[in-house]
Each structure stands twice: as structure tokens, then as C-alpha cells.
Amino acid sequence: MKKSLTFNKIIMYVILIFLSGLFLLPLVWMVSTSLKYPPQIHTYPPTWIPNPIAWSNYPNAVKYMPFLRYIRNTLYYCVFTVIGVTLSSTLVAYSLSRLNWPGKNILFIITLAVMMLPGQVTVIPIYIFFHRLGWINTYKPLIIPTFFGNAFYIFLLRQFLMTIPKELSDAAYVDGASEIQILIHIISPLVKPAILVVILFQFLGAWKDFFGPLIYLSTEELYPISLGLQNYLSAHGHPEWGFMMAAAVLTTLPIIVLFFFTQRQFIEGITLTGLKM
To answer: Is 275 a residue whose pLDDT tops 50?
Structure first.
């Protein structure tokens, strides 16, 4: 029996390692191409290990395009959307999970229904609405809606808040604490893993968002990194692929670093948010 279990584990690990390798292949090829000189990039059969290594591709990539401006625009977009969606979703989730008021269950069902509506269905009417407000070619259509909550994040936080005993709130009521004080000083520290998950999801979503900036931004000076790379790729008939791959590596690196530093809280938040309905 022990030999059989050990053999099954070995098979499982081999399969997982193989699948992980398949997922890593594009990343490895991107890093490899970013370190090649142009003649090495187009050779056949392709070479995985560049020789010699073109370390100069990275500083040249920053000079090849307004890379720093794209990063600054992306950080501006990410930071403000993270602040907006975290504050609004936390307040709504707290109201739906900890407070008693008429119709909250109906509103929660409507919130879940919003998650089932594809975003592509509402693109045209929302664009017309923002166009009439004069917000096109600004970051307002991308940032301001996040201050009105996100259905998925509201659901995620509500599930986590449902696991916290209400006796903690009752004890705070006895001491004269208000709802805002309870949320800030008692509930927020307890839901920190779920809030970190929301921050991570929103930051990653905004960092790699291509469709939103493509719809609402038309000035190249406002482009985030995702749209900026595509703009330079399409604007140059024969782009410097080594520079482009180096820029792509620099764009991906912050996401990888962020995930490795927050993976424990990320897994904990995802695990605990589904314990109670």
C-alpha cells in the first residue's frame, strides 16, 4: 500500500512538473529572446541559450520607447483603481454581511447577477455615457467607476466577513463604538487576507488591462504599458524584437515579484472566503 501511494505521488509530481514546464515555456522564450542580438533571434533551429548575451537590450529598450512614461501612467492607473475598489467594495461587503436593513438580500442577489453579465454587452452604452460627460481620452472612465464597487470583490469580501463572529461587533456596540470605528479598528485587521487578495487582483488586472485603455484613451502620452508596447509594435514595421522582449520582461517582473511576496496571504484569502455562505 505504501509503495502504491509513493508511486502515485511520483506520477502526480511528474505530471505537475511537466505541465508547469509547458506554462513556463513562453516566459523562458521571452527572457531568452530579450538577451539575443538580432541575428540570433531569427535563426533556425531556434537557440534557447543566447551566445553572446546581449545585456544592452535592457537599457536600450528603455531608450527605444518612452518606457518610463508608460510605467508612470500604469502605476497611476493601478494605484487609484486599487484605492477606489478596495474602499468601496469593503464598505458594501460590510453592509451586506454585518448590518440588518430591509432588502439587503435582494441587493446581494442583484450584485451576483451583475457578475453574470459580460462586460462586452455594456461597452457601447457605457462609452456613450462617458462621451457625453466629456471623459473620453482621460483616466476618469477607468478610475472613477472603481469607487462604486466591484461585484466580484464585494462577494469575496462578504464571504470572508460572514466568518467573523458577530459577538465582536456586539461587544464594540456596548463600548459605544460606531459602525465606522468597528470596521476600521476591529473588522479590517481580521479581514486583512481578503483585502490583500482584492488589492492583488485589482493591481494585476489594472497592470495588464489592455481593453479599457484601448477604448477610452487616444493620446499616446496617456498610454499605460500594455497599450504602449502594442502601439510601438504596430507602429514599426520591423520592430527590434530584442528590445521589445526586454521591455516585456521588465513589465512582467513587478507582477512576479508582487505575487511571490503576497502568495501566502493570497492563498489564505482565497481559501477562507468560501467557508460560509
So the answer is: no
pTM of the model: 0.81
- Output the 3-class SS for 163-227: CCCCHHHHHHHHCCCCHHHHHHHHHHHHCHHHHHHHHHHHHHHHHCCCHHHHHHCCCHHHCCHHH
Three-state secondary-structure class, residue 77:
helix
The model's pLDDT over 69-103, given as tens digits with 9 standing for 90+, comes to: 999 999 999 999 999 999 999 999 999 888 888 88
What mean pLDDT do residues 99-119 have? 84
Please count the other Cβ atoms lying within 10 Å of the Cβ belonging to residue 24: 10
Task: List, in order of start, the domains of the chain with CATH numbers.
Answer: 2-55 (no CATH), 64-272 (1.10.3720.10)
Neighbours of 259 (CB within 10 A): 12
